[in-house]
Design brief:
Layout lengths: L1 H57 L7 H13 L31 E8 L14 E10 L14 E3 L2 E5 L5
Antiparallel strand pairs: 1-2, 2-3, 2-4
Length: 170
């Protein structure tokens, strides 16, 4: 009888030792799943923004005008661009939190590249518009788990890209 009681007590002690290890594994799994879901959400949001920017650039008459590049950047950052009646102000919500304003280039984690290319390899000009327009976004993001555990690299690179056929406006 004493042997059974002693065996039961030792099993309780074993469970007490195993519980922290099980919780540690569970916490690591949950944090990894949340981080993956967050990065997936950011990638999908940036992919949609790159698509909006590519559609904007592909449907305009071809020029290397800085106003068009500014509007494309605003479209990718805010989901809309500035018009004479509706300027973009501080109350406008960005597509992703932590994205810099289009005018803030200091320590900018968001880089937008617009590439116009012709199928024949020639350089696009006003009389020879491009065949394809590509919008590439490079976004550096800090993982949130680094606030708890400083492991891994500094940032993740998220790089969505959208290529569309250029539509010559009439």
């Amino acid at each position: 009888m004493w042997a059974r009681k002693r065996l039961r007590e030792s099993r309780r002690g074993q469970a007490l030792i195993e519980l922290p290890f099980a919780f540690l594994l569970l916490i690591v799994f949950v944090v990894g799943a949340v981080e993956f879901a967050r990065l997936f959400h950011i990638y999908n949001t940036l992919q949609t923004a790159a698509g909006m920017g590519a559609r904007y650039v592909a449907s305009r008459s071809y020029s290397r005008d800085t106003d068009d590049l500014k509007k494309t950047r605003q479209l990718i950052t805010y989901g809309r661009y500035e018009t004479p009646g509706q300027p973009i102000g501080p109350e406008d919500k960005k597509l992703l939190p932590g994205m810099p304003t289009p005018n803030d280039r200091r320590n900018d984690p968001l880089q937008i590249q617009i590439v116009a290319e012709r199928a024949d390899g020639d350089t696009p000009r006003r009389n020879k518009p491009p065949t394809f327009v590509t919008v590439r976004i490079n976004y550096r993001i800090k993982p949130f788990y680094q606030a708890i555990l400083p492991i891994g690299g500094d940032t993740f690179q998220i790089q969505p890209e959208v290529t569309l056929r250029y539509i010559q406006p009439n």
